[in-house]
Every structure is written in structure tokens, then in C-alpha cells.
Design a protein that fits this description.
This protein is mostly beta strands. The chain folds into 2 domains: 49 residues, no CATH class; 80 residues, OB fold (Dihydrolipoamide Acetyltransferase, E2P). The strands form 2 sheets. A 5-stranded mixed beta barrel has the order 4-5-6-8-7. A 3-stranded antiparallel beta sheet has the order 2-1-3. The longest helix is centred in the first third of the chain and has 9 residues.
């Protein structure tokens, strides 16, 4: 079991900044969580451990976003430059919302659902790192 201070949002972001996707797992019932949680939602125990995720999964839902929140507008996304956001189910079974790269935003297709993907990180020297998932194809 790790110290409680390892199960904060700041610690979660620190792992992302280091290029790791870390979740927490209850040592009593085995439930897993993203982001980190110091107490298990299933059995209410505080016996949590850190678990590094594989970073592989599949797309279970996605949407092309043309009018995003202010943060995305500041990053240059708008009607002429939309982005894709979605839900990825990791190989470990946990679902996580994230940006999705590799979707043809001009012609998104239903067949994207179920596509395998892998975790990547955008390093950012002035701001926290950002995680996203890239759809895998035969060349990946």
C-alpha cells in the first residue's frame, strides 16, 4: 500500500507529466480506478495500491468537437480545426475519457468504434502534459 499523498489529482498529473498512466487498485476487492482514488468506491476500504496501465485499449465512443471549451479554443481548436474526444476502454477494463488522434475528422465513420488504440503523451514544458490515444492501423 502506498502513502495517501500518492492518490491525489496532483500525483495523477505528475505521473502523466512523467509519461505514465497510473490508476489505483483496491487490495481487498480488486476494483480499479482512473483517476487515482485513495478509498475504494466498491468496498470503502483505504487499502489502495498504484497500478500502471498498459496504455492499450479500444475506442468505445467518440465525437468530433467543433465548439469546445475555452482551453481548447486557446489551443487553436475551432470550427475550422475541430478535434476528436472519446472514451477508451483500456485492456485492464477501465474506461477513460481522452482526446483521440487518427480519426478522419472530415469523414468520421461508425467503424472507428472498436478500433484498437494506444496511449501517447504530448510533452509540454510550460504546462502539464496531456494524454491522448492514437488509433492503430496496420502500419502502427
Amino acid at each position: 500500500m502506498m502513502k495517501d499523498n500518492n492518490f491525489t489529482i496532483a500525483a495523477y498529473q505528475g505521473f502523466i507529466d512523467d509519461g505514465k498512466l497510473m490508476g489505483s487498485r483496491c487490495t481487498k476487492c480488486g476494483a480499479m480506478f482512473l483517476p487515482l482514488k485513495p478509498i475504494c468506491d466498491q468496498c470503502q476500504e483505504a487499502s489502495m495500491e498504484l497500478l500502471q496501465m498498459s496504455g492499450r485499449g479500444k475506442i468505445v465512443a467518440y465525437s468530433v468537437i467543433m465548439i469546445g471549451p475555452q482551453k481548447m479554443i486557446e489551443e487553436g481548436f475551432d470550427r475550422q480545426n475541430p478535434y476528436c474526444s472519446g472514451i477508451v476502454e483500456l485492456d485492464e477494463g477501465i474506461r477513460i475519457p481522452a482526446r483521440i488522434a487518427g480519426v478522419d475528422i472530415a469523414k468520421p465513420i461508425k467503424e472507428t468504434i472498436g478500433s484498437p488504440c494506444r496511449l501517447e503523451f504530448t510533452p509540454n514544458s510550460n504546462k502539464p502534459g496531456i494524454l491522448f490515444f492514437k488509433i492503430l492501423n496496420e502500419l502502427s
